[in-house]
Amino acid sequence: MNNFEFRRLQKRDAEKVHRIVAREGSFRVSPSEMSVWHAQEIVDWVESDDPCYGALRGDDVVGVCLAHLHKAVRKLHIENLRVDVEWRRQRIGNRLLELTIARARQQVAGGLRVVALAKPDNIAILGLLRAAGWTRGDAVVWMQRDVGPPLDLHEKDVRQ
Ligand SMILES: CC(C)(COP(=O)(O)OP(=O)(O)OC[C@H]1O[C@@H](n2cnc3c(N)ncnc32)[C@H](O)[C@@H]1OP(=O)(O)O)[C@@H](O)C(=O)NCCC(=O)NCCS
């Protein structure tokens, strides 16, 4: 853990963040869903007020936590928590999540609900969240409807 620097992501990290989130498409929730963000979207995101943290090893980004903070309703959505496969199980994911939540707490007065979507077979993220005291929500059912051109076309575009 001592070899890693944890800090808020910055514009100059965007290409590296893009690479790490593009490496696997595992966070999409259906086969047709767009699986990665464009590099420019990541630039806009890390330049916004949203809490987004990275774990760095030298110049390399080895882990990220990207989140959206919805201040009006005091909800923090963890959109992507990811650690490079070679650096897993060193508490990096846990630390990134803690820092992201701590930052959001500074931005919002009072309590905060933190939510994350996880596939039921994603043992790693479910293990991490349960170990950190998270409980399974039961307030919503995931519904979806695709509109416009087929999403898989967009996905090809994104992966270029
Ligand atoms: C989920 C992920 C971010 C975890 O990162 P990590 O740095 O390896 O996790 P940590 O080392 O902080 O783990 C903290 C705790 O979570 C639990 N945990 C983590 N990975 C686990 C696994 N594969 N199986 C079971 N429990 C696990 C353990 O309790 C662990 O503590 P321990 O190692 O002391 O037992 C990483 O596996 C990953 O990038 N997965 C692919 C991306 C993904 O699916 N992200 C989630 C959807 S956004």
Short description:
The chain is of the alpha+beta class and 160 residues long.
Low-confidence stretches: 153-160
- H/I helix tally: 5
Main sheet specs: 5 strands, mixed
Strand tally: 5
Rounded to the nearest angstrom, the distance between the terminal CA atoms is 34 Å
Q: What's the helical proportion of residues? A: 25-40%
Overall 3D geometry? globular
**Largest beta sheet: what is the strand line-up?**
1-2-3-4-5
Q: CATH topology, anyone?
A: Aminopeptidase
Taking all Cα atoms into account, the compactness measure Rg is 16 Å
Taken as a percent bin, the fraction of beta residues is: 15-25%
Query: For the residues shown, what is the average pLDDT?
Result: 87
Strand-and-helix sequence, N→C? EHHEEEHEHH
Structural class: alpha+beta
Number of domains: 1
Q: Could you name the CATH homologous superfamily?
A: Gcn5-related N-acetyltransferase (GNAT)
CATH class: Alpha Beta
**Cofactors and ligands:** coenzyme A
State the CATH architecture. Answer: 3-Layer(aba) Sandwich
